[in-house]
Every structure is written in C-alpha cells, then in structure tokens.
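B., you asked whether I could sanity-check this one before it goes into the benchmark set. Here's the sequence:
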Amino acid sequence: MSAARLLVVEDRDSLRRMLERALGGEGYRVDTAADGGAAVASLEAARYDLVLTDLKLPGGSGLEVVRACRAAAPPVPVVVMTAYGTVGAAVEAMKLGAADFLEKPVELDDLFALVGGLLGEAAGAAAGALAESAQGAVTEFVAGPGCPPIVGSHRRLLAALRLLRRVAPTETTVLLLGESGTGKELFARALHALSARQAGPFVAINCAAIPESLIENELFGHERGAFTGAHRREPGRFERARGGTLLLDEIGELPLPVQGKILRVLEERTYERVGSSEPQRADVRLVAATNRDLEAMVAAGEFRSDLYFRLSVFPLELPPLRDRPSDVPQLARHLVARLAERHGLAPPELSAAAGELLAAQSWPGNVRQLGNLLERAAILHPGGRLGVAELKQAMVGAEQGERQEIEEALESAGGDKRRAAALLGMSYRTMLRKVRQHDLEGFPHYRR
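And here's what the prediction gave me:
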C-alpha cells in the first residue's frame, strides 16, 4: 500500500520545512505550498489524502483552502492550524467542513496522532469501530458532578468537545447546531458545568413545544393582574435561571416579536415581565440550540438577522450519529448499562455482531433513536446477551410502535406537523419523512 500523500500549506518557511521533515519522517509523501493560491492549484493538479493548512495566508486565506478541499471529488480531509486566541477562525473553519484544528505552536505528538487518526478513519472507519467495540471500550467526557457523560471518540466529536472546553469558562453566547437527538442539551449542560456559573441553576426551555401565545410569558414571567387568571406574580425562565445558564432549545421556532425581545436581552441584559414596564436584569449565560438552518430562515424573513448575528458569535456544530459510526458500539454499551440501571434490570451484554449491526444503521433520530431501540431490547431480553436476532426483533417492534407514536403526536398537535415533531423531539424534516413513510399525510383531519 502506497504512503498517504499530504499537502502542507504554511507561509513561514521554517515552520513549513519543519512540518515537511516531521511528516516525511513518519513515512508520508509531503507536498508544500506557501500561499492560498498555490495550495488551490495543487489541489486541482493532484489528489491528496489530507491537507494541513494555516488560516492566515498570503494570496488567499486558509478558509479558501478549506472550501477547495470540501469541493474536491472526493472531498479531502483538512486540518487547520490556528494561532492562540483565534478560536473564532477555527469555529468558522469547522463550519465550512474542516475535520479538526491544531493550535500553534504545533506539538508534533498531537500532529502525528491527529493525522494518523484521520487517515485511519478514511481508510477504514468501520473496521476500527468493530475492533474497538470488541474490546468493549467506552470513552466518556464528563464535565462535572451531576453532568451526564458525552460518549464517543470520533474526531468530529472530540473537536467539538475541544471547542466546548475553550468557550465554557467565558460568558460568550453559544449556538449549538445539530439534528434532533445529537445531544445539544448534553452539550449545554457541559457548558454550564465547566463555567463560572456552575453553582447556579441550569434551566432549559423547548421553544417549539410552547404555544406562540404563551411563549413570552414562559420566558419573562408576568405580574399579578397582567391577564385574566394572573392572581400572583410568576417568574419566567430568565428569572429562574438567574446566576446560571438558560438554554433556549429550538430557538428557530420563536415568533418574530419574541425574537426582538431576546435580542434586547442580549444587547441590554434587561427584559420586562408581561404586564410591567419595569426592566429586570437578565443575569444569565444564554445558550441557544436549533436543528434548523437559521441562515436560510434569515434569507426567507423568518428569523431576525440581527438576532442571528448575536447568537452565532460562537457556533458549535454537533455531528449526527451517521457521521461517527465508530462511536455507535461504545455508545450503545453505555446506553444499555444506564437503561438497565434505570429499570432495575441486570445489564445485558451487547455482542460484537450486534455492535456491527448498529454501526451500519443511518439513525435519522440519532442518539435518541438509538436509546429508544436499546431500551426496548433491554426490556424484552433482560440480563441476557443482545445479539443480532434480539436487536432485529426490537427494530421490528420499534417500527410498529413508531406509527402509533406519530399518530398520537399529530392528534395532540391538531395535525400541525411542526408541533408534533417538537412533541416527539425530532426535527421537522424527519417528521415529514416519517409521515410519508407511514402514509399519514392529512392525519387526523382527513383520515382515520
């Protein structure tokens, strides 16, 4: 098998030569470029297995190199090198599709581990996943006491966790991006646990699950007599989260008038209770989360551009489970152990073949869907061995029960698919696909 071919893009001659010698000494074929234009030309002329690029380059920024890598066919994994204190640029590179980032000065041990890991994933992630799963290894990131662990060792997950550690001690607003079930609330809790506000409350609100007429009251509270039935003053989520962290989950579902009030909180750190004109101080660290494309919503006039720019100071994207299949077996073992403990059951053993089956699934509902399947399997087969046959039985049962769950959610939401999706904790796109899959278009108004 021929050695992997790498492209190193760095304008400093001494660092470029050092990286070329170091990676060449590890057996890689290394080409170099001193500026962005030369790097893009090299990508057009040759095929590379991995690109390592600085972000600040003459003749074009490193972000242009990242774009060129992602536009290649097939896309080329790219690692960006950032100077200390330029985390915002690293975040932007990750948004564009960079596989990971390294801080300067570059530690060679970290460089070799990162390059080897990325090339190993490209060569055979599935084989690596099965080898790891056979050993039963579970890699956990625990932010602090009482904070649920985040399980996995895939590069994209580890890169997201490194960014989380960097931003957590600050007061910066964080925007968590990812599909439903990818663990956005877990990341929000980890941000809280690693922050200076860890002793304060962590409060979460699902903006999609509350009717539009009630959302302002839920967020800001009300004064006595503010409306019929308001017999006493009630605090809102901002008040309950005072001194701590407030997670606005599915913030893309907020109506435009309420978006304006959230913008005021971010800009002035004040808000008003319903029925009062007296400003209240908002002493919270705000974390927002969404599974929607906010940029597209801004273009469509559905989301305020000024609020989007305030929220996206530090975006943090969580990879879907299908993009990190190597994590599925160890994550499944972790979930099975927790589920057995919750239900007072003997923990079942997950076979290597069962881990392989799970890793091969697409998991549109991500970790939430995986957990639901394993809960069913653990209840049906307590204390025994969960093999391929047992998991397939649980999958059939889950498919049959899914239609009923969707019917019940549509019934509760009066046919509103977006509300039904929020009730089930899935994205709106997934709900539309499930409605088509189960032939439930028009339910419950026109069909029974």
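One thing to flag: Residues 91 and 315 are 7 Å apart (CA to CA). Otherwise nothing jumped out at me.
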